[in-house]
Recover the amino acids of this structure.
């Protein structure tokens, strides 16, 4: 399977006391194939960018998204704004496609790195479903391109007591597994602005037909 990083950090939103607003956004991974279809709405969704009134928890619209990006692997800042001027910056990390093809089982599976906060994990009502969504984990039949069900999501942490750090997540079909994990430790607060090198990615042998 293919190993990539998942980072969990403390939630540290930007506070604009004058406007009565708070704002947050996560780093996220994408590959060069995503660039041509990238829109502000997609970026907001992938970064889980949010603005809200801390007194009422009412959501506030994000009025502007500013960024420059290319298909070259690298880290590209993106800044989100509200109409009141509150802004937060996170990173779009362009990396090679993280895809595994299993000819024996006729399946292809894909997932990306995850950046989430402790609150995201603890407040999730359906964590396994959310992990699949956050990692954009999907699998396909090689013959006809039809979706293949990801039958299980395995992780090695307790959601109720999770602390900042990196954790294993394994996405499984009946054929083989796709694993998200890390080999490096990240200091609290260092998730935004990280730049990853090829040495951060490690290839493991494929686990076929195992639960």
């Amino acid at each position: 399977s293919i190993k990539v990083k998942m980072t969990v950090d403390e939630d540290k939103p930007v506070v604009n006391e004058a406007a009565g607003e708070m704002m947050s956004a996560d780093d996220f991974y994408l590959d060069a194939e995503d660039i041509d279809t990238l829109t502000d709405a997609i970026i907001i969704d992938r970064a889980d960018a949010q603005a809200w009134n801390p007194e009422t928890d009412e959501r506030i619209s994000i009025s502007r998204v500013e960024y420059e990006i290319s298909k070259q692997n690298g880290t590209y800042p993106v800044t989100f704004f509200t109409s009141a001027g509150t802004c937060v910056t996170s990173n779009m990390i362009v990396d090679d496609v993280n895809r595994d093809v299993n000819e024996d089982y006729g399946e292809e599976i894909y997932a990306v790195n995850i950046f989430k906060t402790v609150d995201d994990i603890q407040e999730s009502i359906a964590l396994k479903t959310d992990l699949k969504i956050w990692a954009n984990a999907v699998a396909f039949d090689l013959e006809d391109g039809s979706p293949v069900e990801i039958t299980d999501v395995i992780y090695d942490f307790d959601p109720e007591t999770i602390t900042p750090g990196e954790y294993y997540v394994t996405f499984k079909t009946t054929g083989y597994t796709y694993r998200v994990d890390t080999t490096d430790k990240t200091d609290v607060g260092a998730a935004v602005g990280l730049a990853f090198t090829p040495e951060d990615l490690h290839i493991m042998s494929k686990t076929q037909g195992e639960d």
